[in-house]
Structure formats: structure tokens, C-alpha cells
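HUMAN: Please help interpret these C-alpha cells:
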Amino acid sequence: MFNTVALSLGSRYAFSRRSSISFISLVAIAGLALSVAVLIIVVSVVNGFERELRERVFGVLPHLSFIGREPLLGDVADLDALRALEGVDGVVPFVQGAGLAAVASDVAGVLITGIDPLVHGEVSALADYLLDNSELKAGEFSVFLGIGVVRELGVDIGDRVTLVLPSATVTPAGLFPRQKRFVLRGILQSQSDIDSRAAYIHITDAQKIFRLGGRIHGYQVKLQNLFAAAQIASRGLTALGAERVFARSWMSSYGNLYRAISMQKATMFVLLSFLVAVAAFNLVSTLVMIVDQRSGDIAILRTLGSNTATLVSAFVFLGMLLGALGISIGVLSGILIASALPDLYLWVTGMFSLDLMNQYFVNYLPVEILSDDIVGIVLTAMVLCLLSTLYPAWRAAGLHPAEVLAHE
């Protein structure tokens, strides 16, 4: 009777131990999967912001501008000198100044930019973000406005918009701000902060309202490498003459933001890697419990001639197998969730009428999943899993068969 009770209690204890090990194993796998998925999602979102800043914002805005200290004549020799610089993809003249766009009592601040639509594509992808196929024509006094300005003024294609300059015109009745009525011919929708201030007009019309005659304010330049802006700016100043022009690159307006995004990506990767490390080291408790439960089997293997390398390899393989399962689930989940995030964001903002991105340079949630990041995350997680298997493997190899079997 006593033996039956003891056997029953022993069986229940063994089942309880196996259940505990299975539960802890599932927790370790789930924790590892969750941490890997979170790391993939966060890094992909940061990648998305970096891509949109690089392609969308810098696709419309010039990478580098040479601005005359006084209005320039727009000499062909200047264009040729800049185009001859190594690393320059395109050069176009421009006229630019701050102003107001007004319709009745509604007013919006804008940056008025005069462009030549025939060549502006050399430095900007402006045409890719216009909602229609209209063109600016000299003498028609037509304008392209950002969609943010359009909504603020409550206008649509074909409506008349008055552009007001800060300089004044002297008349017999007194001083009046210089202004001209334009027809809205196109709407810019880049889904970035450019939309809230952009006003593009033909360069000939801009020269008239700014009273420049045939002169221009400077040259816009597109670079092959964004990060070569400082070097090309220096060479451009030498070619044009620093006494005539000064340079302004994208670094002055968006450089800090770009560096912040890059730094944030590195910081988030490091911080969330600690989360992966915590989940990976949960494998330690699982493997230690397996060592304790299977100590008798380990002792028998040692008496049969198994060496330390065999035991260590077995537990390292078991730990890596559990880690690979968790990492695989995490990678798959992270990719699926990250891919669905933009649509999910649009649904949430539309359902609850939210504007969660109004403080950012884009007004939607960008995501970019890069294979290099996935590989880096997987390798980091696998290394952490490998490290977490070393102590349990060493513990199993250090068991003394005689002491273990004496208590079996």
C-alpha cells in the first residue's frame, strides 16, 4: 500500500515537473518572439521616417542652393560652372521669397518659389506629387499651392488667389503691399510639411512680382550624394565667387532631424536588444530545470562513456532550437504587424478622427522593412540565445554520476 502511494505521488511530482518545464519553455519562446517582433516593428518605423525624409522631402526640396548676395543675372556660365562640379546631378535657376496667400479674409503664410517648369525636373520631383497634370506657363500668373494652404484658404482648382509680398508699393494714396492675383492650377500633395507652405509660380512671373527684371535669386542644385553637400558647396563658392553668393544646404534645415532619426534608430536597436537579451536569458531557467529533472539520465550517459563535449553540445543544441523557434515566430509576427501598421494607422485615425502625426514632417505612419535589419536582429538574438545556453550546459557537464545515482 505504501509503495503504491509513493509511486502515485512520484508520478504526480514528475508530471508536475514536466508541466512546469513545458510552461516555462513556452514563456521563454513567447518572450523571445515578442521582443524580436517589437524590435523589428520599431526599427521598421524609424526606417520609414528616414526613407520619407530622404525621398519625399528631399525629392521636392533642393539639396543645395547658391543664393546671390544681390540678385544675379542668371549667366549661362554660372550654370555650366556648377554642372561641371563632381557629384552634381542638376542645376536650375530660381526666384524665392516669403509672402502671403489670401482669399477674401482667409490668409496663409507661404514660401513663393519661381521655377522654370521645363527644367525644374532636374532638381525636384515636384510633378510626381501634383494632383493634376497642369503646367505653369509664363504670363498666365498661375500658381501651384500645397494642399495644406488650399485647405486653409478653402479654394480649389481654377479659383483666384492673391499673393502678397512684404515689400510695399508707393501710390498717391499711400503705401500698399505689393500683390498680384493668381489662378490656382495645381495642388501639391507630398504628405509632408512642405504642403503647408508651398507656392510655386513660373520664374518669369516671379521676376515680375519681385521686380527683378531678368535677374534671379540663385541656383538650386541636386546632388548625387546628400552627404557631400558641404564639400560641393565649398567648391561651388569657389567657382561662382564667395563675394557674389552664399550656399545653403539641406543640412541647415533638415540636418538635425536626419541625424536625430539615425541616432534614434541606433539607440532603439541597442535598448530593445536588451529586451531580447532578457527574453533570451529566460532560456537559462528552462534549461536549468531540464538539467535538474534529467540529472539521472545525464549521470547514466556519463557512466556509459559520454564526454563533456557531448553533453555541452546537446544542451547548446536544445537551447538554440528553442531560441530559433522563438526568433522565427518573432520575425514572422514583426514583419506581418509592421506591414499592416500604415493601414491600421489610417483606419484608427479615420475611425476616431485623430491627427496623431501633425507634429511630424509627414502626416502618416511610414514603414520600411529592410532585410539587413532583419538579419542583424536575428544574428543578435541568436548570439544572445547561444550565450544563455552556456551556463546550463556547463552545469550539466559538471554533474557527478556517483552522487546523482546515489539519490535515484
About this structure: Residues 88-223 form one domain.
